[in-house]
Design a protein that fits this description.
alpha/beta, 7-stranded mixed beta sheet, 5-stranded parallel beta sheet, 20 helices, 29 strands, 22% strand, nucleotide-binding
Length: 649
């Protein structure tokens, strides 16, 4: 394709926060930055000035101190703003809209809204209740929760005290919850009585009671009434209903414990499919600055905007979403199935609530297309300015579907980063064209490159996604990793003093990026490196196929490509369909990409955030144990991949 799918109007570029920021930087530093590329180059070369100026321009609260960066030539080891004092919750609540700050839909079951004053009042009472329960600076508060207003308030109250928040979604199994929270020894646990999914309620009180037997440090288990207005909590050790937990306290001004820049704010978790999840600790200042940058500059979020991301509280996009308060946005929260009851509910939500940013996953967009949804015909979407996609690579055809069937004039931003940095390496640029299949730009202040095996930066060919200079949202470290050995091994062993992220990526002629999947899942038949996303792009365009997973099977001293496909109901994998699949892959990729075997399965295992687990499939095919099936949303799906006769010859 030699033309972009979308180009912002001159008026839109002029009105963008990114333009205002660039002009302000020119005035402040006597620069002549004439566009995004020049701004990006300055943000990397002059990183200390860039990050400090971002803080000042955004009007954030706190004191950064006089020193921007210490040991800036070390990764890990660089320290940002070592004299700073700030509070994350203070910055979110100071900018929360006075009118509607939070809107909540739970499928078609529950609808609620809180004003800024109501949110602050709830945070105040929670702060006092947490103090009374013994929570203080550095203590951990854990939550097994839906994406609902009470969750937001509990997190803000935790952060206001300088305590550390960690959450997962209520569909996790008991072992998955204890594998995570058992490592961090929380003082208080939040959970609902039940949650909604696909119009059905799922009571989790028995599961919470079981979890608490493995969490002896928990002093109070606060149960949020959700499905039942007055749930019985008597069987839960330390159980107390939300209303009773708050009843002794009257709302007052929220106080804020200002903490150092790298003081722990969030603990997030790796997927855990190769063992117990790693506990990734994210700092206060780096998280705040990075999210403010991504919301205000890369997503063009303005005060009064209404921001939505379809996410659970076990995915880092929840942490990203709620930081939108710091940009003055109203948060549109959602819990439940994204397709309940008739497939259109998220687009209904967008129309009803004036959504300006619609965030979702690539899989949602693919499924919407497969389901024949055409919101461009059925919904107004007149307020929608931006649509963001993450979780897996968004294929070029999915880009085209968005502009053909969702909205023609919208900034489509395919974004990628991860739990490791609670943010993005590559993402959107609202002042630049959108090209099919491409992530538009590396994030400001992020020295992103693609490295070949020798550690040289390459363009126009595939390589490892790396970041060659320190950035503020690098994790503080891993929990219970006192000498940092696990942290260094995770990101810095491949290329010393360089962050290696684990994605297979290519810089394009337009200055954008294409991601081909996780580099640890890259196929290597005959020594040729192949990204699985290249194969998925071809296969998932076929109407017979709902989704696919591809692995490399060790075979006869080499690796051969194995493709598993989920077919539409009523179809079978016959020779004609196999020939069609192979022909399409050969013609549009290469003969090396063509699978040696194609196998039909009913389901594909995925993590609880919806990502296909290629490594778990690979282990199952090779008869290796899957160390932590609790990390999977559908672990029984792995049974279909073990001892397949089709793979024995």
């Amino acid at each position: 394709m030699d033309q972009p799918l979308w180009t912002p109007s001159e008026a839109r570029v002029d009105a963008a926060n990114l333009t205002a920021f660039r002009q302000a930087a020119n005035a402040r530093f006597g620069l002549r930055l004439d566009g995004y590329d020049a701004l990006y180059d300055w943000s990397v070369a002059g990183k200390e000035d860039f990050w400090r100026f971002l803080w000042e321009w955004a009007g954030l609260k706190g004191d950064l101190g006089g020193t921007a960066l210490v040991d800036g030539d070390r990764m890990p080891g660089a320290r940002w703003f070592p004299e700073a004092r700030l509070n994350y919750a203070e910055n979110l609540l100071a900018n929360a809209p006075e009118g509607e700050a939070v809107v909540f839909w739970a499928e078609n079951k529950v609808k609620r809204r809180w004003s800024g004053a109501e949110l602050k009042a709830e945070v105040s009472r929670l702060q006092q209740a947490l103090k009374a329960a013994g929570v203080g600076k550095g203590d951990r508060v854990a939550a097994v929760v839906p994406n609902m207003p009470e969750t937001l308030a509990a997190m803000l109250a935790t952060a206001s005290l300088g305590a550390i928040w960690s959450s997962c979604s209520p569909d996790f199994g008991a072992q998955g919850i204890t594998d995570r929270f058992g490592q961090i020894e929380p003082t208080v646990l939040f959970a609902p009585d039940a949650y909604w999914y696909n119009s059905k309620s799922h009571d989790i009180r028995a599961k919470i009671a079981e979890v608490l037997t493995a969490l002896p440090t928990v002093r109070a288990a606060v149960i949020i009434p959700y499905v039942d207005a007055a749930p019985d909590v008597s069987a839960i050790r330390g159980g107390v209903a939300w209303g009773d937990f708050l009843a002794p306290f009257t709302a007052a001004e929220v106080s804020f414990e200002r903490v150092p820049f790298d003081h722990p704010l969030f603990i997030l978790y790796s997927s855990g499919t190769t063992g117990k999840p790693k506990c990734i600790v994210h700092g206060t200042g780096g998280t705040l600055l990075q999210h403010v940058k991504e919301h205000r500059l890369h997503s063009d979020v303005k005060p009064g905007d209404r921001v939505f991301y379809y996410t659970t509280c076990g995915w880092m996009m929840w942490n990203w979403l709620v930081s939108g308060l710091a940009a003055g946005a109203t948060l549109l929260l959602y819990d439940g199935s994204p397709f309940a009851p008739d497939g259109n509910i998220l687009f209904d939500y967008a129309d009803a609530e004036g959504m300006t940013l619609f965030g979702t996953s690539a899989k949602f967009i693919q499924q919407a297309e497969k389901s024949g949804l055409e919101p461009i015909r059925t919904h107004r979407l007149d307020t929608l300015r931006a649509l963001a996609s993450t979780g897996s690579p968004l294929m070029p055809e999915n880009f085209e579907y968005v502009y053909r069937s969702i909205k023609a004039d919208v900034h489509l931003a395919s974004i990628s980063g991860g739990t490791d940095i609670v943010s993005c390496f590559v993402l959107g640029n609202p002042t630049a064209p959108v090209w099919a299949g491409e992530l538009q730009t590396a994030g400001l202040g992020m020295a992103v490159a693609a490295f070949d095996d020798a550690g040289h930066a390459v363009s126009g060919e595939k390589g490892e996604l790396v970041c060659t200079r320190p950035f503020p949202c690098m994790p503080v470290g891993f929990w219970a990793d006192p000498d940092g050995a696990k942290y260094r091994a995770a990101y810095f062993e491949r290329f010393p003093n360089v962050w290696t992220h684990g994605d297979f990526i290519e810089r394009t002629a337009h200055g954008g990026w294409v991601i081909y999947g996780r580099s640890d899942a890259v196929l290597n038949p005959g020594g040729v490196r192949i990204g699985t996303a290249e194969i998925y792009r071809q296969v998932e365009q076929l109407p017979e196929i709902l989704e696919a997973v591809c692995i490399g099977q060790e075979w006869d001293g080499d690796v051969r490509v194995i493709l598993f496909v989920v077919l539409r109901e009523g179809l079978t994998l016959d020779k004609d369909l196999e020939d069609t699949i192979r022909k399409r892959i050969k013609e549009n990729c290469s003969p090396r990409h063509v699978p040696a075997r194609i196998v039909a399965v009913k389901d594909i295992p995925r993590t609880r955030s919806g990502k296909i687990t290629e490594l778990a499939v690979r282990d199952a095919v090779h008869g290796r144990p899957i160390k932590n099936t609790e990390a999977l949303a559908n672990p029984m799906a792995l049974d279909e991949f073990r001892e397949r006769p089709e793979l024995e010859g």
